[in-house]
Specification:
There is one protein chain. By secondary structure, the protein is mainly beta. It has one domain. Helices cover about 5% and strands about 50% of the residues. Strand 6 and strand 7 form a beta hairpin. It is elongated.
Length: about 150
């Protein structure tokens, strides 16, 4: 008897199959990862009539968060030194299970804040670090059309 494996978008992934890297170095202690593209200011455009002709493109923003085990987060910030929140970073994520593989690239990452949790209990402490970024691609494809600047 085989157990069913949950699927997301037709791909079978489990958390251990995800690796987040800074350059060629895998980051340890990552417990969660989330990124979402946000479009702000997308409004209708009108001509001479009452019915809309289309939509404006709006402005694009990428935001997300990393959930890190506290001891690994402390090691990473210590290695970066003073002013780690002022740094701009690039990360690469790899989902891999069997023949299914998905690569994400995140460039221009800036952490917006970092909390310092303290609690009692039998579970390890984790820190949630929200970030914003300038570039995001999944398997080399951007969710939005690139326009020449």
């Amino acid at each position: 008897m085989t157990l069913s494996v949950p699927k997301r978008d037709g791909f079978r992934f489990s958390w251990p199959s995800f690796t987040l890297m800074e350059g060629e170095t895998p980051l340890e202690g990552i417990r969660g990862f989330n990124i979402k593209p946000v479009v702000e200011g997308r409004t209708e455009t009108y001509g001479r009539g009452r019915f809309p002709n289309g939509f404006t493109k709006g402005t694009i923003r990428y935001e997300g968060q990393l959930v890190w085990q506290l001891d690994f987060w402390n090691d990473w910030t210590k290695a970066k030194g003073e002013g780690f929140l002022d740094g701009i970073y690039s990360f690469t994520g790899l989902y891999e299970e069997g023949v299914d593989r998905r690569t994400i690239s995140i460039g221009g990452v800036v952490f917006t804040e970092a909390d310092s949790p303290a609690a009692q209990g039998d579970e390890g402490l984790s820190v949630t670090v929200p970030f914003k970024c300038l570039e995001y691609t999944e398997n080399g494809i951007s969710p939005f059309q690139q326009v020449a600047r």
